[in-house]
Write a structure and sequence with these properties.
151 residues, alpha/beta, 5 strands, globular
């Protein structure tokens, strides 16, 4: 499931030092460019986080930025951004994040299936570490595909 929703074109790496706002905007960029979400969806994510949305912090330096589908989801999709330097949510050091995901679900069923797939991968410590160590989008896709096939 996740391997179909997270194509290579949606996986990016940066050495740039970003704020959390820049990281969320950048991780969402491939979804906006593909027409999977509207710019309003990105703004809804930023507004939600600014209002105290550290709930997107999944721990282990991982954040899952998302908003309600009615704020601009066109098609279900996921994007990933790996930062060299963490961009702490709300500028709080205890919420240092260097692996941002953007999640957009068009409906409840897609939401549940995609979240379950992502949760399984991110809860597996060796796979989580391998995601951090991946040097290319193709490595990430291969890692996710192999994980899904082993289940």
């Amino acid at each position: 499931m996740l391997s179909r929703l997270l194509p290579e074109r949606n996986i990016h790496f940066t050495d740039d030092r970003l704020t959390w706002r820049e990281a969320v905007t950048r991780v969402a960029r491939p979804l906006v460019e593909a027409g999977d979400v509207t710019p309003e969806y990105v703004q809804a994510m930023l507004d939600s986080i600014a209002a105290g949305g550290t709930y997107i912090d999944l721990g282990h330096g991982i954040a899952l930025a998302h908003a309600r589908p009615e704020y601009g989801v066109v098609r279900t999709g996921i994007a990933m951004l790996r930062l060299r330097e963490p961009a702490p949510l709300l500028d709080r050091p205890e919420h240092a994040v260097d692996l941002y995901f953007c999640f957009a679900a068009a409906d409840a069923d897609a939401h549940l299936r995609a979240m379950a797939s992502l949760a399984r991968i991110l809860s597996d410590a060796p796979t989580r570490q391998a995601l951090r160590e991946a040097a290319s989008a193709s490595e990430v896709v291969k890692l996710i595909t192999e994980f899904e096939e082993s289940e």
